[in-house]
Amino acid sequence: MPLRTRSWAAAPTPRRIAYIVGVVLIAGGAAVLPALVVAGVYREWDTMLHLGLTLALTVGTGGVTLVAVGRPERLRPKDAFAGVAIAWVTVIAFGSLPYLLSGSFGATDALFESTAGFTTTGATVIVDLSVVAKGLLLWRATTQWLGGMGIIVLSIAILPLVGAGGIQLARAETAGPEPDRLTPRFRGTALRLWGLYVALTAAAAVLLAFGDMTVFEAIAHALTSISTGGFSTSSASLGAFSAYSQWVVIGLMVVAGASFTLHIRALRDPSEYLRKPEFRYYLISLVIGIALVVGDSVLDEIGVPIRESIFTAIATITGTGYAVTNYAAWPAAVGGVIIMMMFIGGMGGSTTGALKTYRVAIVLKSAAAEVRRLTRPKAVSISRFGRDPLPPEVVSAVHSYVVVYMLAFGIGTILLLYVESAWGANMDLVTGLSAAASAISNVGPGLGTVGPASTYAEVSVAGKWILGMLMILGRLEIYPIILLFTASFWRR
């Protein structure tokens, strides 16, 4: 225990932070290779040059950084939290190079597209995807695939450099419950997680290729389905493809919204799904979401197929920015349900964003316990998660996170509406609320002028920076970013 206290008391060091950044840049830069190959296959020489420069600059910078700082003896919690936050911002900046070098994006738009990619937010500033080079389209999909499982976890898995600090990096990247290990060493867990991630992506590509998608389209959509990212190769998103493809993606989104650690455990014993209370709550949230959207669609006589309503509900809850119809044109009641569902998310340990199912369940259960205490003051009321009682410190931590999350959403919404009124197109309230909710929950499309039939191209420069920050806050679950701006964090 004293060792843990001293570890947190020590200030993070630039050397250790730079080391983490270097490892992540090498892992992220190497991921440019598939897009580079695709650009060559389609003879997109300019795009090939841009991707090649990105690969060289990213891997080169990461390699030089590692050589310069050397391997630290150990990684402390503060180093991990600071390193993860800075590494994510750095890899996003380098990931914007292909867009910037193409000449079709300004600096803000290139960073926005890269941020939306790595944070698995399906927001885009590209109006017509049909004119975008195939190599660049695959890079967009690859950034979401990397961001889905977590590029930090990828670094732990493929570069045996972080040693005992691996678990610290995993804690820093997800400020939720303790990372669930499948093996004694977290690197072994990371390898298994990425093994399953790759296998599911390959299976998804095969299933989609059996439909009306080309091999390239199937691969691109497999990358962005398993990552619950939502970048498509068509401006019409999944609405450009057949009902078969849409049903396959519905299944993929449901799978990706569940814990990948749970999937691995269930490979040995399928009953693990039934024993996990969060999985039951996750399925319940999907059923309720589908019922609300389908019910509103039927009552308001929108006239869309039930498949499209189901797709919209699942894509929203899991934060997958796909769309099969322009739900922004649906009645206000459905729009309200969609905004509400943006905050739910999937299970902890999944590729989804938002609050996550376990937090939503804990908040509801603790609220129910408080109601029981008020109605029966002398009774002992205990909140339970499944059969296990919830420790007060866990309930308190979840409540604190939800308050901070909603505060960030509220401030982001106000700032967005303010800057759009001053320098943009005087954004309406529904558009502003949905854009901020979609950004911090890593969903993508919102309502109003940023709905699925539109893009974020018309949002002002300042508005895009605000939304980009909300995306990063949501992806890193807020605390690692907040710590960077806390003076006591940098003091011994």
Please, could you describe this protein's structure?
The protein has about 500 residues and is mainly alpha-helical. It has helices spanning about 1-10, 15-30, 35-40, 45-70, 75-95, 95-100, 105-120, 135-150, 150-160, 165-175, 185-210, 215-225, 245-255, 260-270, 270-275, 275-300, 305-315, 330-340, 355-375, 390-425, 430-440, 460-475, 480-485, and strands spanning about 385, 390. The chain has a domain at about 1-180. The protein is built from 23 helices and two strands. The chain has a two-stranded antiparallel ribbon with strand order 1-2. Helix 7 (about 105-120) packs across helix 8. The two termini are about 20 Å apart.
Provide a short characterization of the protein structure.
With 492 residues, the protein is mostly helical. Helix content is 65%, strand content 1%. It contains 23 helices and two strands.
